[in-house]
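Hi everyone,

Forwarding the result from last night's run.
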Amino acid sequence: MNLHELTGFESGVVVFKESGEAYIANWSGFEGIPRKFANALFGLDNGNDIQETENDEFDDIAVEIAVANSPKNYTINGRYENDEVIIITFKGWE
């Protein structure tokens, strides 16, 4: 199952838990976790261990990234995580 199938969304914010690095990613064409290399995104790992979660520890980072991209109010739709990343989707980003 890819992220689009899991989340029902094509994009959201990817936060790497250990480093706190976060970015907006469109994963509609990827299998696995989107990784940022220079100016490109690549899907690596299978991402099959990502599960829906209620962990809100990284919500502020995700909203900050979303607002920096397009200033407006954002409502979190869902959170998905594994040991390495948390993926946060927003209502209206389907």
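The chain has one domain: 3-90.

Cheers,
N.
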